[in-house]
Amino acid sequence: MSQALTASALAARLHAHAPYSKFLVGAAIEDENGAIHTGCNIENATYGLTVCAERIAIFKAMSEGVRHFTRIAIAADTDTLTPPCGACRQILWEFAGDIEITLVNLKGQTETLRLSTLFPRAFDASFI
Ligand code: THU
Q: Which atom of ligand 1 is found nearest the CA of 24?
């Protein structure tokens, strides 16, 4: 758990473009060098083309050459801390493995767990 990372996720959340759901999400992923890469959800009128905060964050980082990640924080305004959606779990597993995940809300409440807890028995390249 990193205070800098949760603060970055909370700040990134404010950039969310979520006019349809009004559900703002921020994510901040840390790489092996300690650099933080942020993302927010960006919605589309077709709904289905919406991209979650977590995927924006990791794809932004990967597009800049980053390949190794240590932890991610996900911020949303919910009393029950918001976990990553199924699609994001699959993407995180593929590119970040059993990464540490910290969920945080606007009250500053947090929970830290491993992706394998949320996403057991994942399908991945090892089966191909
Ligand atoms: N959303 C995320 O960005 N991350 C999640 O883990 C859950 C859902 C976004 C997608 C959509 O813009 C809004 O939250 C409501 O589903």
A: 14
Q: What is the pLDDT of residues 87-108, one digit of tens each?
A: 999 999 999 999 999 999 999 9
Which domains are seen in the chain, by residue range?
Answer: 3-127 (3.40.140.10)
> Is 7 strand, coil or helix?
helix
What 112-119 contacts at long range (C-beta under 8 Å, 24+ apart), as own/partner pairs, is 112/1, 115/89, 118/83, 118/84, 118/89, 119/89, 119/90, 119/92, 119/93
Catalytically active residues, by annotation: 54
- Between the CA of 23 and the centroid of ligand 1 the distance, in Å, is 7
Does the beta carbon of 39 lie inside 6 Å of ligand 1?
A: no
**Beta bridge partners of residue 106, listed in sequence order:** none
